[in-house]
């Protein structure tokens, strides 16, 4: 498993897609100058911009690396040579996933450090009303990374059944959209306006709410930008949700992948 | 214990719109340790299907098989095997050395031994100079050589090779044959598929001929060649000088007797045989050649 983990990381670092996405990171140092466009909340804006950019880069990485990793193995017939080694398919899949997850965490960490430098430069030039709560900025980035790791788990699960890159890539993007919207839809359904919907529709929406991923809890931007204290219980629940959801996705993925024939 | 034991293996592919292909029908076969077995058959005969099933890449529709006593489809069975896929593809962002190390570690080889074996096989397959270049830049034959190298690196008991000679130059083919013979001498089992009859003739102990998913014949190569003798070319020498004479197989004994009586010396006796190729064509086309 560790060997698969290792070559997964090696593969990502040598991947052209990764190099391409890396280019987006050069925008980060531009954040201070762009932030000056805001008259009053320069530091707040720099945090917002940095976090959004990091989130966007992580999204690209998880869709294009996570969504294509396993598909490429199958499409380019690497699976014949690799799955005939004495590595079980479960271990292979877990090695792949852990490699991708570790890479996302690493990328988030590196980008996070750059962002902190950028934000502290801005804060030095334009002292904010409230001091920046670095712990919250850090937490926001880590939870963002967790969100994308969950997304990669979904991408891997989709890859195990798909024969083209279409399902994993667009399925991952769809998962992202659904995951970001599910909380709002749920709240709408629960609201007085939602009362007008047919009961069947409301039940469906409720059922889907518990099945589909929900990314809203991973969003700690507000806490980072305005220094709102984090709720300990809330973050703990989010971590728990993450662990359970990822475990279920991987369980499904390993079952499907073990049954798959390499024709 | 036989190295490879296949019992009643069948495989039916179900494609789109419920199309069904019976790629393999009730195949039973045993290959011993220390034996080179040639798996011969025309395109689409079911050779690769058999091999992929042995490696657990596809599931048999029915039947079972064991590798060194372990049921196929388990990591334990694959632990004994070096497998070369047909038209192999390896992670092209790695170089040959990195890939071989990856394979060796997957087999749990200790690092010291692995480094040493890695250098040996790279040199043996003439990949030493290219070992640090990503495999993306390799030619077809070089990739095939990596395929042979990754089969050898962990020194397994069983070698399952799907068209090992494909894409290799004559020197490479000779090298592969030499390697196979060496493995046999060290008591290893080599099972390889091919559609080139002469490859079988020169290295194999036994040959199995498969067409349309059915195993038609399993024979000792020597026996086929012996049985295939149709006559003899004699070179004779007497007072008038030397001359040649063709004698049909069944008349050899009487002819030799007569020649002895006449005081003619036989300087050379060469068998004239139907080749393995003829034998193969006979089975595949179903008619005598
Ligand atoms: N994935 C698949 N789906 C459907 N049919 C398949 C599939 N793979 C192989 N077949 C069919 O199974 C039969 C045997 O194929 P196989 O690849 O085992 O042949 P082969 O003996 O290896 O041929 P070759 O010498 O060309 O490599 C063929 O009729 C082929 O069309
Ligand atoms: Mg084949």
UniProtKB/TrEMBL annotation, chain A:
Keyword Nucleotide-binding: no
Keywords from the named record: Membrane, Transmembrane, Transmembrane helix
Transmembrane segments: 21-39, 45-71, 92-121, 133-158, 165-186, 236-257
PANTHER family: ABC TRANSPORTER PERMEASE, SLL1107 PROTEIN
Protein name: Membrane protein
The organism's taxonomic lineage, starting at the top: Bacteria, Pseudomonadati, Thermodesulfobacteriota, Desulfuromonadia, Geobacterales
Gene: xapB
TrEMBL record, chain B:
Coiled-coil annotated residue ranges, if any: none
Pfam families attached to this UniProt entry: ABC_tran (PF00005)
PROSITE patterns: ABC_TRANSPORTER_2 (PS50893)
Residues annotated as transmembrane: none
The keyword Transport appears for this protein: yes
Boundaries of every ABC transporter domain copy: 4-237
InterPro entries found in the cross-reference section: AAA+_ATPase (IPR003593), ABC_transporter-like_ATP-bd (IPR003439), ABC_Transporter_VariousFunc (IPR051782), P-loop_NTPase (IPR027417)
Record carries keyword Transport: yes
Keywords: ATP-binding, Nucleotide-binding, Transport
Molecular function via GO: ATP binding; ATP hydrolysis activity
UniProt protein name: ABC transporter ATP-binding protein
Organism: Geomonas limicola
Primary gene name: xapD
